[in-house]
Amino acid sequence: MSETDKRPLVEFRNVSYSVQSAPTPIIDDLNLTIHQAETLVLLGESGCGKTTTLKLVNRLLLPTRGSVLVDGKATTDWDPIRLRRQTGYVIQEGGLFPHFTVAENISLIPRLEGWEPPRIKSRLQELLSLVGLNAEQFGPRYPNELSGGQRQRVGVARALAAEPPLLLLDEPFGALDPLTRADLQREFAALAKRLAKTVLFVTHDVREALLLGTRIGLMKHGRLLTLETPATFLSSTEPHVRSYLDTLGLPRLSEPPGGAK
Amino acid sequence: MSAWQFLQQNWPELFRLIREHLELVLLSTGIAVIIGIPTGVLLTRNKKLQSPVLGVANVMQTIPSLALFGFLIPLPFIGGIGQRTAVVALVLYALLPIIRNTVTGILGVEPTIREAAVAMGMTDRQILAQVELPLAMSVILTGVRVATVIAVGVTTIAAAVGAGGLGVYIFRGLRQYDNNLLLAGAVSAALMALAMDFSLGVFEQYFSVSARRKPRISLFQKLAVVFIALALIAVVALSWQEPGNNSASTSTQRIVVGSKDFTESILLGEIVAQMLESRGQQVERQFELGGNLPHEALVSGRIDIYPEYTGTSYTAIFHHQPISDPRAVYEQLKKDYSELGVDVSPPLGFENTFAILIRGADARRFGLHTISEAVPQARKWRAGFGQDFMTRADGYPGLAKAYGLEFAERPREMDLSLTYIALASGKVDLIAGNSTEGRIASLDLFQLADDKHYFPPYEAVYLVRNDTLQRTQALNEVLNKLAGTISTEDMRVLNYEVDGNKRNPRDVVRQWIQQKKI
User: Fold this and answer.
1) Tell me: the pLDDT tens digits for B333-352?
2) Hey, are the CB atoms on A85 and B120 less than 8 Å from each other?
3) What is the count of structural domains for chain A?
4) Contact B502/B176 with Cβ under 8 angstroms?
5) C-alpha angle B135-B138-B142 in degrees, rounded to nearest 5
6) Do A99 and B121 touch (CB under 8 A)?
7) Is A157 domain-assigned?
8) Are A125 and A117 contacting, i.e. CB atoms less than 8 angstroms apart?
9) Cβ–Cβ of B118/A84 closer than 8 Å?
10) Nearest-angstrom CA–CA distance, A128 and A124
11) Sequential DSSP letters for A148-166
12) Model's pTM, two decimal places?
């Protein structure tokens, strides 16, 4: 799918999503384009609609208005199984199946896709070393025998297993201790770049957004407030962005032009 | 008889009962698993069906087991007497825990895990088979385990519909007040329940997710499960050696002899059965049928003949007001039964009327001979009656009215055969027993005369299906031979041989037939 970096892979066109139990829409007229091989980070407080946005991409949810296009085709026209098999999905704690070993978790989708056992096996080796785990040591273990960081690595490996062009990550590193989180963030950034995956990454951590994102979208009340590169995001004068950065007490990497106090 | 002697003499029968019990439990739980798990899965896919289906299964569970067996008797195909009815009832009981635990287990799978499965592009069927069922397995197995233990218990009641199993010993033990029988039945059933519970528990542990990787099944648990399996296999294997108790013949000419669930009825059933057998007729015994079952079974053709008392049929089955003329009762019954395709044999010669009994010591102390004389004393007494007597038209309500009888407290309802012991040991002071009961003499009980002739005549007769009578010459012959042949004294002796001397009804009857030369 990758010809030019500017080709859009996911497009939100006037998308709204609401549920009967809530008076205001969860997503309110969202327009957003995610290009090939970019890592777009959606940033926002809990309840701002960022996870919902993610779930609209792989058809866990369908928009109540507007349409979400993946690879030029509306999600409503996709076979949901095919769409999801081409979309890696990572959630907090990895969402690993507790009754499967690490190896079984990772090779599940290739197995369902009917890969030959030797191919599955070599892919498994490759993926585990990609996420920095020893295949012999970790392959036969069960998720409850892993640390949080190891589980998260397995979660990423599983999402990559069937070589999907698109990755969706929902606060994958949120539950980890700061040191492990920093390690994984750094490794993931390198990995995404090397594999040239298109990534939609959801977080409430500005530091993470700045580290991983090629673009950062700030969401509030189901709307996209800004969509900037990290550099412009940091120097943005948009009041929400500023207050967001301020409340997190982030050190100012650069002062807004001419705005020294 | 010591427990050891009892086991030495009776192990073949005991082992057969254990095997029958086991068969019923495994068959019914197996069917319940096959029906219950898919039903449970369906309920997780169709939430609207959940509460109605679980509600129905819940109601099933609250029906007392004996009542459920009773409901099933007259039904075609699934009903009747014997194993099939028992299996149907047992399946109905086993369904609820299995369905409920399947639903709980599947809905209990963490939503994030289910969502991850969906997001990975697994189909609904793949999610069910590879994620939900494996993760729910230990909860489902808990349901199967509960169902199995319930089935072991309920199966003891199944003996009342002629399904066999350890309940045969328990009912017989209660009736004959024989602790060996009671213990052999109850302890075996309890051990079976414990063994099943333990084995399935180990199995369940094996499937539990938290014990993954190395399912911590200890050596002791493994050995215990192997031991239980071997013990059951040994019992089942040995039980096949019991000589020809259940003739497996399926000849259409076979006559099925039924009886009620007390000694005298069994003896009368056995008398007819042995006399038919000595005339070359094949016989199947369906003895010890509880409550109203013999009548239902006879009318629906599941049995061909059973012993009954005219007064009982007259009041309890056809709901006539009690009268005291034996001829009138007999003639009326002939007419009533002919409409059901049933004939009434000539009376056998003895009556088994209700006997109002008190302790011999009380009778002598207060100089009591009749029920009327006892009425003033009764205000200080407690009474104990069989369930039957409490409700039937010729039972306690009418008796109390006829004599103006009142007790210190509401009469206790208990198993008829236990009332004798309760009376003798002073737990109650007055009971309604059977006049032919062998233990009246052996326990020094006194029968108060029915001076107001309240009880209708209870002549013993056989009830036979007309079609059977027409096709079986030997049966006509036997019934004519038995007319007027069994005296009240004969019956008391026969009853006492079984209840008092703990002898096998077959041997007692065989000996009696030889003596009588019939």
Assistant:
1) 999 999 999 999 999 999 88
2) yes
3) 1
4) yes
5) 145
6) no
7) yes
8) no
9) yes
10) 6
11) HHHHHHHHHHHHHTT--SE
12) 0.72
Q: Cα separation of B78 and A205, whole Å?
A: 66
Task: Say if CB B153 and CB B25 are below 8 A apart.
Answer: no
Could you tell me if A95 lies within 8 Å of chain B, comparing CB atoms?
yes
* Phi, psi (rounded to 5 degrees) for B291: 50, -130
Residue A228 lies in a domain: no
Burial class (CB in 10 A: 0-12, 13-18, 19+), B298: buried
- A260 band by pLDDT with thresholds 50, 70 and 90: very low
A183 assigned to some structural domain: no
Q: Does B241 touch chain A (CB under 8 A)?
A: no
Q: Using an 8 Å CB-CB cutoff, list chain A residues near B119.
A: 58, 60, 84, 87, 89, 91, 95, 168
ipTM: 0.87
Domain that holds residue A121: 87-164
Which B residues, 202 through 221, put their C-beta within 8 Å of a C-beta on chain A? 209-210, 212-213
| Distance of alpha carbon A261 from alpha carbon A254, whole angstroms | 13
Q: Is the pLDDT of residue A5 over 80?
A: no
The Cα B109–Cα B103 span in angstroms is 10
Tell me how far apart the alpha carbons of residues B37 and B144 are, in angstroms, rounded to a whole number.
10
pLDDT at B242 over 70: no
Q: What is the pLDDT, as a whole number, of residue B213?
A: 55
Yes or no: say if B35 and B91 are a contact pair by the CB < 8 Å rule.
Answer: yes
A135 lies in a domain? yes
- Distance separating alpha carbons of residues A88 and A192, to the nearest angstrom: 12
Of A95, A108, A144, the CB nearest to B212: A144
The terminus-to-terminus CA distance of chain A in angstroms comes to: 48
